[in-house]
Amino acid sequence: MFFHPMDFLIIIAFGLSLWAQFRVKGTFNRFADVPASSGMTGAEAARRMLDANGLTNVPVEHIPGTLTDHYDPISRVVRLSDPVYMGNSIAAISVACHEVGHAVQHKVSYPMLVARHRIFPIVNLTSGVAPLLLLGGFFFQMTNLLLLGIIFFSAAVAFQLITLPVEFNASSRAKTMMVKMGFIRNYEESGVNKVLGAAALTYVAAALISVLELVKYVMIFNSSNDD
């Protein structure tokens, strides 16, 4: 494969992704040193937010590492990393409440979360096969194989795009509840926005890379048909 014009944009998107990853770590570390006025830990904030939304049956568990926080929709558990579970910082409360936001989405069957859960088994299958089909299509110059690879890869792109509103909505729910329940005060909202905004940028960058790669494959497929 020769250098394609779209590769330049993809390289820029990769650069954006790397910058976003550095930024989320830097922003988290910065606000991990800023104590929240409420003095609550991430685990306490998560527990209270869960209970306030009728999710008393969803436990909050500690998980080793940093920025390994997530909501497990299968086990229905909110898992928080070391600095979030035990920390009482702006960063800790922001991340903890964001993960609870996903639990609330699960409870109310937020449409985009439901769509992501339904497409995940398909993506889990196609994401491993798509690169092989694409490489085979390029190497053997088989347009049918290339087209199948593009279709399979499209599922992964769709998953990335669906993830964006899921993440933004979880953050929105978190911000609303954090202020409403007194976890943070109004002057602390800018810190929360920076922490959650930096995290959201990583998802935007990942989606952009996927879309650009898909466009590239489609352009190559079209040019192959023209030949």
Automatic annotation (TrEMBL):
- Per the UniProt entry, the signal peptide is none
Recorded source organism is: Brevibacillus composti
Superkingdom of this entry's organism?
Bacteria
Give the stretches traversing the membrane. 6-22, 119-140, 146-170, 191-212
Taxonomy, top ranks, is: Bacteria, Bacillati, Bacillota, Bacilli, Bacillales
Under what name is this protein listed?
Zinc metallopeptidase
Keywords assigned: Membrane, Transmembrane, Transmembrane helix
Q: Which PANTHER family match?
A: MEMBRANE PROTEASE YUGP-RELATED
Q: What InterPro entries does the record point to?
A: Zn_peptidase_2 (IPR007395)
